[in-house]
TrEMBL record, chain A:
<dbReference type="Pfam" id="PF01032">
    <property type="entry name" value="FecCD"/>
</dbReference>
<feature type="transmembrane region" description="Helical">
    <location>
        <begin position="248"/>
        <end position="279"/>
    </location>
</feature>
<keyword id="KW-0812">Transmembrane</keyword>
<dbReference type="GO" id="GO:0005886">
    <property type="term" value="C:plasma membrane"/>
</dbReference>
<feature type="transmembrane region" description="Helical">
    <location>
        <begin position="321"/>
        <end position="339"/>
    </location>
</feature>
<keyword id="KW-1133">Transmembrane helix</keyword>
<feature type="transmembrane region" description="Helical">
    <location>
        <begin position="77"/>
        <end position="95"/>
    </location>
</feature>
<dbReference type="GO" id="GO:0033214">
    <property type="term" value="P:siderophore-iron import into cell"/>
</dbReference>
<keyword id="KW-1003">Cell membrane</keyword>
From TrEMBL, chain B:
<feature type="transmembrane region" description="Helical">
    <location>
        <begin position="288"/>
        <end position="317"/>
    </location>
</feature>
<dbReference type="Pfam" id="PF01032">
    <property type="entry name" value="FecCD"/>
</dbReference>
<dbReference type="GO" id="GO:0033214">
    <property type="term" value="P:siderophore-iron import into cell"/>
</dbReference>
<feature type="transmembrane region" description="Helical">
    <location>
        <begin position="248"/>
        <end position="268"/>
    </location>
</feature>
<keyword id="KW-1003">Cell membrane</keyword>
<feature type="transmembrane region" description="Helical">
    <location>
        <begin position="360"/>
        <end position="377"/>
    </location>
</feature>
<dbReference type="GO" id="GO:0005886">
    <property type="term" value="C:plasma membrane"/>
</dbReference>
<keyword id="KW-1133">Transmembrane helix</keyword>
<keyword id="KW-0472">Membrane</keyword>
Amino acid sequence: MHEVVTPPGAAVAPSRRSGLSRLTVVVGALVLLGLLLLASLALGSKPLAPAQVWHALVAPDGGEASTIVHDLRVPRTLLGLVVGAALAVAGVLLQALTRNPLAEPRILGVSAGASLGVVTAIAAFGVTTLTGYVWFGILGAMLAGVLVFGIASRTREGASPVTLALIGAALDASFGAVTIGLLTVDSYTFEEYRFWVVGGLTGRGAAVPAQVAPFILVGLLLAAMVARGLDALALGDDVARGLGNRVGLIRIGGGAAAVLLTGAGVAAAGPIAFVGLAVPHLARALVGADQRWTLAVSVLLGPALLLGADIVGRLITPGEVPAGIITALLGAPLLAFLVRRARVVTA
Amino acid sequence: MSAPTAPTTSGGDPTATGTSKPVQRGAVRLRGTDPALLPGRLLLRAGRIRLLVRRRSILVAVILLVLLAGAMVLSLSLGTPYVAPVDVLHSLRNLGAPDGTGTPYDLVVNRLRLPRVVLAVAVGAAFGIAGTLIQSVARNPLASPDVIGITQGAGLVATVALTTGASAAILAPSALAGGLLAAAAVFVLGARHGLAAQRFVLAGVAVAIALRAVTEVVMLSADPIDGQRAQIWLVGTLAGKGWTEARWIALTLVVLLPALLWAGWALHSSALDDDTARGLGLRPTARRVGLAGVGVMVAAMVTAQVGAVDFVALVAPQVARRLVRAERPPLLCAALVGALLVVLADLVGRRLFAPTQLPAGVLTAAIGGPYLLFLLVRGRRRNL
């Protein structure tokens, strides 16, 4: 049985919500993201003044500030930008496709699939460059995505939140078992993997953002193309078809986009949790249920959240706390809240 | 329900004051049917104690015992050096004899391999029991300690302990505490509509995901050596463990034995729906929380000893239920299936890539994950 999960605020007239027009929200999100990008370049173990950052960007002089900004903070910030956008948009897509408020790359086991792909690449094929990882990450994400959707469509309850979450848990465990099996047998792989999987933006190398950007761009374009159709899907397949949408195409396009984005995002920064869960909900609370606006806001808020987590992680302890742990700590209470509020199919 | 004239509290409110209820509690008797006459049942009488057993359960239990004994002997004989099963049995006869009096294999069999095999049996049986209790209470085959976050709670605390260089002595107690805390969180989050609701499982899954995410990051941000140790612990392995851990698990089961015996009986009545149970004078909510509490304690204790051997608690009760063809998971058979699973998982893990050992938990997860998916696709969650 299918249930349409009404996102928060969907019942409210979409045009005027809490006095903020959607455009205001988008502009606000843009400003916030801009500020965080600047903060990400300026803050860290050696704080720099905005003027120094600006100087380093436009006229690098090879000095200390310039080196820090160029070699460390710019790659890190760009990575946060692309990965945050990828995970947030993947979350929007998965939530819309499964009609399920809890859908998120990590919860559905798609991230676990990507992780397994990366570990297989290291252990079995000796791949050590990110360009190699990405493909394996995407393959793994694809495998997991196909499994999730395939199994969800075969269960009696369709894609109820519980069923989906459990399918994700099962996949997570199965993939995790194979992953850990590979890691146990091979300590070299554990070292490589450890470096990659911490789920953060540090030490990824300056070339990484550019390497994954094409995949993520394609994913975002696909997402933009299916955005209108996602709104129709929320009304149920029959209605969507009646409105002249090609449901199968929308599903495949949206699914492919989600898999591309997750695979590339996870391959680049490790399985960062909850960005894909938190941002879409936040976006919908701000702009209502229209998927195109939700996507537009998520693309901005995803990087904002990830960069914010990364900056917090830099500042709270002398050693750095990876962004992944900050997002996990932020996401856990949110997940609890969603569970309490979710309408669950009563068996 | 006839309304009593005296103002009594409603039976459904567990917070009601402990006044003795006018209803007499005791054994459920079905009038007009002599239980001994039910087909496929045996009535065992010992004085006033009467025990009704299904013939099929006995048969299944005996077969499982034989299989388990076989698996244990196999696990004792395989490895380097290989010890023929006959010699294994000889060595076992010499158990406890002073050193140097027995066969040359005594050391390998009794000292090196037996502790680990016995531990495997204890771990599997305990997980089987814990899983049965929690699944029966939630009336949901998916509500097993490793799905609803109890194992993950123990895992998180243990990972923190392992990666911060805490002493080994506090590992087990802290993991135990972590498991109990996680269970408490799930209860608070999910038990608003009774433990049988889907929300309970969903809350558990959510707690499990959150805890696992945090654990992973803690583990991987740590020193590499600690990280790998934590990783192996998290998967659950019996390598390098033996009597000490087995003793703790056995002790837990013995201490909780009265509770388990009560549970075996209570499982029958918790299968009734709440109104019926109340009508018979039972207190369903209190009983559920009690049963689940015992299950949680057992699961947390085992996890504390050997790490998170995933999915045994999920799979064992369900396999046992299908073997016995019962509506509910049978306690004893579930324990036997669990023991058999873990002994085999440990054996395969030891020998598959020898000399490298795979943690037993890798194998149980590799089997259990697909099995969970199979359960979901079958989607028979009503008839537990």
